[in-house]
Give the backbone structure.
Amino acid sequence: MISLTVNGKKFQVDVSPDTPLLWVIREKLNLPGTKYGCGIAMCGACTVHIDGKAERSCQIPVKDAQGKRITTIEGIPENDPVKKAWLADEVSQCGWCQPGQIMAAIALLKEKPKPSDADIDDAMEGNLCRCGTYQRVRRAIHSASGMTTKGGRP
Amino acid sequence: MSEIINLSRRDFLKTGALAGGGLILGFRLPFGDAAKAASTAAPFAPNAFIRVGRDETVTLIINKSEMGQGVYTSLPMLIAEELECDWKKIRLEAAPVDPAYNHTEWGVQGTGGSTSVRSEWERLSKAGATAREMLIAAAAKAWKVDPASCRAENGRVIDRSGKSLSYGKLADRAAKMGAPKEVRLKNPDTYKIVGKPQGRLDSPAKINGRAQFGLDVKLQGMLTAVIARSPVFGGKVVSFNASKAKSIPGVKEVVQAPSGIAVVASGFWEAQKGREALEIVWDEGKWAFLSTPGMREEFAKLAQNPGLVARKEGNPEQALANAVRQISAEYEVPYLAHATMEPLNCCVDLRRDRCDIWTGTQFQTIDRNTAAAAAGLKPNQVRIHTTYLGGGFGRRANPYSDFVVGAVEVAKAVRKPVKVIWTREDDMKGGYYRPMWYDRMTAGLDGEGKLLAWRHTVVGQSIMVGTPFEAMGLKNGIDGASVEGAQDIPYAIPNVFVDLHSPKIGVPVLWWRSVGHSHTAFVVESFLDEAAHAAGKDPFEFRRGLLAHKPRHRAVLELAAQQAGWGKPLPSGRSRGIAVHESFGSFISQVAEVSVGPQGKVQVHRVVCAIDCGRVVNPEIIAAQMESGIVFGLSAALHGAITLKNGRVEQGNFDDYPLLRINEMPRVEVHIAPSREAPGGVGEPGVPPIAPAVANAVFAATGARLRTLPMSPEAVRKAMKK
């Protein structure tokens, strides 16, 4: 049995210890908001917070997540400024990568409350979006941080 | 759903799925609370698209798949505009498979070809207006007044005296009114919703992790499977040994299915580990020799020979012979993967006398019928539950229903609810690519630089051949999708010749966002740029001069040029390129501002996009789709290539099939040209012009003409040396 703390709740799961945290979250804890996209940490769709830091849950064997504070998209309040900015700036399209984008954006803003476009590009480079919402991702992160730039860079 | 009074009542009763009672435990409709809504009484269901409940809920049933393009917002807008309901109280449901939901032109239910708004505008407007008129008639009858003295607004019917009744209160009475034979649609000048930016209705569910995609579906007692498929297209299993796989904890069964060997387990990871332990001997079949360099050679040879004539105008041979200046060039583009962010998947619950399928599909009717045949059931025993699609781009509109049938076959073997998951590698290596193309171009100019003749030979696989769309898509052996955007070039050129070779190769090909236009726009707009430079003319002015008879092309060309500051100075190292292209009923011009790094890396800084897509439903979604198409097109232009070696696809994941990332994202500015023309598509038309706009800008910056995609740094360096 492996014990996990996810979104403030404690869980006991009976899985092989090498199972990636991603699949435990999705299949055993019934929290499908965290997405599978590549399985090799190249797309960021599986991004969760582990002790407040953005991590790729497809790369973390579940045994290594024991005793840590795990937060998924379902654990972020709906009135979080990033989620609000995401709505206001109409970021989502197909939506598959968006939970990962939002988790990465929240972690960025925690570290850098007023990020530049370059900071955003650095922090968000690992999150792929096939629908091409990047310009709106930048804009929404600026909105969430309270900055009033127009998004994008010249 | 106690009373249904419209003409297609029988169709509703046949499916039964509309009532919501048939939903299986654990499944939520795309909108979290829609299932709850469906179970409440909705007495007024005047047609296939609208249900009004006594509790004031207005449920709209949407027959198009939401894959990011915004149909779960734009189509409700069309209905709500005429229905005059409260926009904030709308609930949505994905339509079941039923003839009432067929595409207005295809005869089956499906989403694609950038047709949703174009094909549904009239039908959905009428659906909304019919319901509105019946609600008004019900209120007028209750009040014993002339219906003409009543109006509908924000979910209420109001009479001249100010008396009003809500739609919920009118629902039972409206259900007893006859549907009007004809309804008057609103004057567009009075639109309150259509034409104005509206927030996407699917956003809250998507940003909170509540939106249900196919991969998120979970059924009681469900198992998870992955399939080991042939490494070469068309290969077959000779023998396999599953004893090691079966010893992996969590692996339940290993079964042979037509698509390969399926490992069925308690979860994905267990199935995946089981598959890694499989030992399989393959008969690789007849395509194991395929390699990209050899195919290129074959294509280039074909391009030297005459093909099937797609268009002949004037006397191109003679005009070319007489031309003062002749230019010619070969262009080539590779196979491309759709690479939807949500890898393919399908969930099947197959019982003795019925089959329920949950998946994100663009092709409901075809999937249902194909699944029925595979399951040994009648089509009406199969129900398709359309989830959200984590991207489609054509991959989820498969004429062979590959990802659905593969799952049905596994379910048939294990007789338990099963979800088949494709890993990213399965998805990328598993076929159905944008075809590889080779194009040979020749143009003839007179002494003043006037374009006299244009010759274009297209070489590449047909998408339509062998599909149920063959009869519709092929004319005189020519697949329209192979030459769209090439045979119908808009420019005033007196002598035009376009021919086509469609080699038959065992690489599965499919429509890929913008289909034939994804390659023809690159070739035509690049080569036209070559002609402009050969003529010594400005590429914008050269195009403008050839588009005098094409006002919509010319208007977007001028709008894009003006907004981009065409001709004005740029920071050093930067240059502009322009392209214009019509596809799916819309006209788009894009100006790209680029620089080329010392190592040949192309950086796109800014893209100005002008679109005329006729009448507009949601300008916000149009802008988003232009941004989306530009990014999709840039991924292909700068990075994308699927190549083969010994019959095997060489790429498997985002490390060797890179997509554009945020650090490469240009600033995109979208300008929508005001238009009263018939609506055009927006999902695909943003893709075609970007590759040539960038290539033309690279030429302006470096003098190097990029005729091969992708424009990798190596390709750019090579072109610069020429």
